[in-house]
Amino acid sequence: MQDYPAYVGLFSQDAAVHIRPAFRGPEAHTTRTAHDHPTRKINPFFRWSFLKMLLNMKRLLTHWQVGDGREARLVEHVLATARPGNVGDAIRAIDEFAYHTAFLINVGDEKGRILDDAITEAEPRRILELGTYCGYSALRMAKAAPDAQIFSIEFSADNAALARRIFAHAGVDSRITVVVGTLGDGGKTVQTLVDLHGFTPGSVDVVFVDHAKDAYLPDLRLIEDRGWLHTGSVVVADNVKFPGAPEYRAYMHQAEGRAWRTTEHETHVEYQSLLKDLVLVSERI
Predict the structure, then answer these.
(1) Each residue of 217-229: pLDDT tens digit?
(2) What is the DSSP string of the chain?
(3) For this structure, is 270 an active site residue?
(4) Cα separation of the two ends of the chain
(5) Are the C-beta atoms of residues 137 and 119 closer than 8 Å to each other?
(6) Catalytic annotation on 56?
(7) Residue 121 appears among annotated catalytic residues
(8) What are 238-257's pLDDT values in tens digits?
(9) Using alpha carbons only, what angle is made at residue 121 by residues 115 and 126, rounded to the nearest 5 degrees?
């Protein structure tokens, strides 16, 4: 995320989304135009909220809040405009806020549809999310998998509190548990998942990875070492191209056909159409 400014000018204003199976046989492309995405894309570099986020990047990377109060304002917007007990309307309200009030660093609506499809296909009972932020992706997963229990790990206690308020308003707080911590904190969070939440070998159906990019691979390896995954478990990773998780992507390349089967989805960074991104959907084999 600290590399955002360096990418300006490296991408074209291409509004198409290319989805391709990256590591399986000859390349095949399916292209969806911007007309398939009804929410209007806004170039974030012309938005003060995005520039303000860049100016506060050091704080963001330390506290995972921009520092201008936008996360708290988001919660108030959701509570004021989304119908209580309606998870879909909470998702709508967050997208509305991100497009028209302040840029947010969640997965967004375009990449969110890729996540939706992966969740729907996997039909999970237990989901582990790495990176709650304000709860947007957990809401999408709760909607796509109404029978799943979601355990979301969040570094920031402030973000966790904000997300819990949104979950309660949306009526999904009984299905989403936010655990404050990180998988790399020396075992404390891992032990919480084991002792309090029943994480055992083979118990995790889906992992969604959207937190510190340099933690993607170490955290995946920890999950593998704990044996929490099973054949058919799915891992979805956001922001693999931008700001980038090159070690994670290289690992999935190396493991292709042996431990993992991965599809790369070419898409865009959330809430705009300038910067391109990759979402990786990987199935354990």
Answers:
(1) 999 999 999 999 9
(2) -TTGGGGTTSS-----EEEE-SSSSS---EEE-GGG--SPP--GGG-HHHHHHHHTHHHHHHHSS-SSSHHHHHHHHHHHHSPTT-HHHHHHHHHHHHHHT----S-HHHHHHHHHHHHHHH--SEEEEE--TTSHHHHHHHHH-TT-EEEEEES-HHHHHHHHHHHHHHT-TTTEEEEES-TTSSSHHHHHHHHHH---TT---EEEE-S-GGGHHHHHHHHHHHT---TT-EEEE--IIIII-HHHHHHHHHHBTTTEEEEEEEEESTT-SSSEEEEEEEEE-
(3) yes
(4) 31
(5) no
(6) no
(7) no
(8) 999 999 999 999 999 999 99
(9) 75
Amino acid 118 reads A
Name the catalytic one among 95, 109, 129, 210. 210
Instruction: Kindly name the residue from 71, 110, 219, 270 that is annotated as catalytic.
Output: 270
pLDDT at res. 67: 62
> Rounded CA gap, 107 and 61, in Å?
17
CA distance 199 to 5: 40
In the residue annotation, 239 being an active-site residue is answered as yes
Annotated catalytic, 147? no
CB-based contacts of 204, cutoff 8 Å, min separation 6:
126, 127, 128, 223, 228, 229, 230, 233
Report CA 49 to chain centroid distance, whole Å: 20
d(CA 246, CA 74): 31
Fold classification of 107-284 (topology level): Rossmann fold (3.40.50)
Residue 247 Cα distances to 16, 206, 260, 262, angstroms: 27, 21, 15, 15
Q: Which of 239, 264, 266, 277 is catalytic?
A: 239
Mean pLDDT of 170-188: 98
Q: Which of 150, 199, 210 is nearest to 175 (CA)?
A: 150
